[in-house]
Amino acid sequence: MQKRTVLGIIGVTAVILLGGIYLTSRQDVHGPLPAIKQDVVQNLVSPSETFSSPRWNMEGISVESDAAMALNGTKTATRLTVTAVPGWHRIETSTTGLTPNAMHTLSIFIKPGEQMSLLLEMRDVRPGKQGIARFDLGGKSVYSISGDVVDAGVLPVGNGWQRVWATMSYTMDHAVFNIALTSPEQVPVYMGDGKSDVLIWGVQLEQSTRPRPYTANMTKPAAGEP
After folding, report:
1. What is the distance between the alpha carbons of residues 195 and 193, in angstroms, rounded to a whole number?
2. Sign (positive/negative) of CA torsion 15, 157, 25, 90?
3. Residue 111 lies in a domain
4. Where residue 78 sits, what CATH number does that domain have?
5. Which of 129, 148, 205, 222 yields a CA-CA distance of 20 to 30 A from 120?
6. What whole-number distance in Å separates Cα of residue 70 and Cα of residue 68?
7. Around Cβ 71, how many Cβ atoms within 10 Å?
8. What's residue 6's pLDDT?
9. Residue range(s) defining the domain that contains residue 50
């Protein structure tokens, strides 16, 4: 029997099912739901909701902050739009605190606009492990996995949103990952059309083999960090 847990979250109902998180409208819920304590998830990505931060590098893409309503009921979703130039169309960041040789799952909430294909690329900060997971957003499915990625998935979460995720291990405690918008043929390097877009929100990297409930991490960088 599948385990189903309902959590009280502002504006949404969260259903934890087989290690994933599903968020749906609370239109049929009157009053707050009782909070149910869950294991605390350590999200290694910061900031996990501000993609215009200097910690994120942009390539061939425009980033519009606070472009739409996010799953937590606030206008904090970010719009990524490919630019009309050839090359990659992605944002990239790095993070520390990983446990070497342990499985880690990277996940992010996506709401497709005109853009229907996307990939997650993960790697050690120095030459080591590397993996890619490609997603068909229109079909809400995994297109392919390669390299050191051992598993990936798509979790529909309501109101057009879906949570894409990929799992792999790293040899170091410092990793780099990027979110790239790809061509309809799933090619990462191509001429952008200047209009294809997606909404993103809530990226998470955690030590686990499946995505667990999202935990925001808006920790300010230490002195000397961007």
Report:
1. 6
2. positive
3. yes
4. 2.60.120.260
5. 222
6. 6
7. 24
8. 30
9. 41-206
